[in-house]
C-alpha cells in the first residue's frame, strides 16, 4: 500500500516535528544535545560549509527571538482554512451539513486570534526596578534563593522569576518562552495562553470531526463497503478498511492529509493543555516542574542509602480555587500581597 505508507511517513514526520519543538521549548540543554548528535551523524555526509550554514540558521531560529514560528503558525492556519473553505466546506454543504455547524470553525478562529494576539503583545510580567524588591512570593530556599541578582538585568530576582535569554529580561512567575507566540509566558499573560491553547485545541478538533463526518457520509452514501475490487491476482475481493482508506486518499488527497495533520495537532495540543491545567491546579510553572524533577533526581542519587529521599515540593499551593484565581487575577505590585 504505497499511499498508506506515504501517509504514515507524513504523519510520523509531523508528529515528530511538533513533539521536538514542544519538548524543546525552554529546554536549551536538551535541544543543544540533539543538535550536537545530529551534527555528528551528518558530519560524514554533508560538506563542512553546508553544515556550518545549517547550524547558523538553526541557532538563529531557535536561540534568538524571531518571528519564524509565529509566521509558520499563521501559514499553517491559512493552509488549513484555505483547504476547509475551498473544498471541504462545499462538499459538506452538498452532504446537507448545517450552516451553523460549518460556521463554528470560523467563530473559533476569531476567538483564538484574540487570545493569540494578547499572548503576543501582552507584557508577561517583566521584572523592573520598582518591582524587584517587592515580595509577591516567598523564597523556597531550594529553587529560589533570596538575594540572587540577575547578571544580565542587574536586578534582584524575585521568587518564581527567571531570566529569559531570548527576550533578555526577567519575568515574574516565569513559565516558558513560547516560540509560537514569540513571547514569554508569565504571570500576566498565562490566562491568555491557556485560553489560546483551549480554543486552538477546539478548533483543530472541530475541523477534524467535520472531515471525518464528511468522509464517513461519503462512504455510507456511496455504499463503498458493499462493493468489491479486482486485486493484483486478478480475482475480485470485498472492499475492506485498507482499500477504503486508499480510495479516499486517492479521491480526496488534500482532505485526508489535512485530517491526518489535524489529528496529530489535536492530540499534541490536548496533551500539552492537560499538562498546563494540572500545573494550574497545583500552582506550579513548567519551569518549576522541570527544575523540581532535576532536583529530585539529584537528591535521590545522593540519598540512595535512605529509604525515602527528600523531595522538593511546591510552597505556593493556595487550594484549587485559589490557584485558579491566581492565574486569572495574577498577583501584582498593586495588590501588595505576600504568599
Write a structural description.
- With 339 residues, this protein is mainly alpha-helical.
- It has helices spanning 2-24, 28-42, 48-63, 68-94, 99-121, 190-222, 241-251, 253-282, 286-302, 320-328, and strands spanning 162-164, 169-171, 176-178, 183-185, 228-230, 236-238.
- The strands form three sheets. A two-stranded antiparallel ribbon has the order 1-2.
- α4 (68-94) packs parallel to α6.
**Structural class category:** mainly alpha
Q: What is the alpha-carbon Rg in Å?
A: 25 Å
Strand elements, count: 6
User: How is the largest sheet built, in terms of strand order?
Assistant: 1-2
The span between the termini is: 60 Å
The chain-level mean pLDDT equals 81
Given as residue ranges, the uncertain stretches (5+ residues, pLDDT < 50) are: 333-339
Task: Tell me the strand percentage band.
Answer: 5-15%
Task: Sketch the major β-sheet.
Answer: 2 strands, antiparallel
Quick one: overall form?
globular
Oligomer: single chain
Order of helices and strands: HHHHHEEEEHEEHHHH
Helix content: 55-70%
Helix count from the secondary structure assignment: 10
Quick recap:
This protein has 339 residues and is mostly helical. Helix content is 60%, strand content 5%. Strands 1-2 form a two-stranded antiparallel sheet. The chain has a two-stranded antiparallel ribbon with strand order 3-4.
Amino acid at each position: 500500500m504505497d499511499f498508506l505508507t506515504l501517509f504514515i511517513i507524513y504523519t510520523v514526520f509531523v508528529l515528530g516535528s511538533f513533539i521536538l519543538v514542544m519538548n524543546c521549548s525552554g529546554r536549551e540543554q536538551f535541544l543543544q544535545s540533539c543538535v550536537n548528535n545530529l551534527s555528528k551523524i551528518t558530519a560524514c555526509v554533508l560538506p563542512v560549509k553546508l553544515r556550518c550554514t545549517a547550524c547558523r540558521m538553526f541557532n538563529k531560529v531557535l536561540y534568538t527571538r524571531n518571528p519564524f514560528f509565529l509566521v509558520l503558525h499563521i501559514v499553517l492556519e491559512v493552509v488549513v482554512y484555505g483547504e476547509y473553505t475551498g473544498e471541504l466546506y462545499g462538499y459538506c454543504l452538498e452532504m446537507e451539513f448545517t450552516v451553523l455547524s460549518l460556521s463554528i470553525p470560523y467563530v473559533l478562529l476569531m476567538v483564538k486570534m484574540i487570545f493569540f494576539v494578547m499572548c503576543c503583545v501582552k507584557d508577561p510580567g517583566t521584572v523592573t526596578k520598582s518591582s524587584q524588591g517587592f515580595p509577591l512570593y516567598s523564597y523556597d530556599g531550594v529553587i529560589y534563593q533570596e538575594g540572587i541578582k540577575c547578571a544580565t538585568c542587574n536586578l534582584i530576582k524575585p521568587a518564581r522569576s527567571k531570566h529569559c535569554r531570548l527576550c533578555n529580561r526577567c519575568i515574574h512567575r516565569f513559565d516558558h518562552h513560547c516560540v509560537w507566540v514569540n513571547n514569554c509566558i508569565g504571570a500576566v499573560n498565562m490566562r491568555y495562553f491557556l485560553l489560546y491553547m483551549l480554543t486552538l485545541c477546539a478548533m483543530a478538533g472541530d475541523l477534524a470531526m467535520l472531515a471525518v463526518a464528511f468522509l464517513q457520509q461519503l462512504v455510507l452514501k456511496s455504499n463503498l463497503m458493499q462493493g468489491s475490487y479486482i486485486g493484483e491476482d486478478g480475482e475480485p475481493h470485498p472492499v475492506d478498511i485498507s482499500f477504503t482508506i486508499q480510495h479516499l486518499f486517492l479521491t480526496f488527497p488534500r482532505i485526508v492529509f489535512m485530517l491526518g495533520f489535524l489529528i496529530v495537532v489535536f492530540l499534541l495540543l490536548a496533551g500539552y493543555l492537560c499538562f498546563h491545567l494540572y500545573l494550574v491546579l497545583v500552582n506550579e510553572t513548567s519551569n518549576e516542574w522541570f527544575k523540581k524533577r532535576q532536583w529530585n533526581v539529584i537528591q535521590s542519587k545522593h540519598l540512595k542509602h535512605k529509604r525515602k529521599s527528600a523531595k522538593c515540593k511546591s510552597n505556593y499551593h493556595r487550594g484549587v480555587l485559589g490557584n485558579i484565581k491566581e492565574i486569572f487575577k495574577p498577583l501584582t505590585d498593586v495588590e501588595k500581597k505576600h504568599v
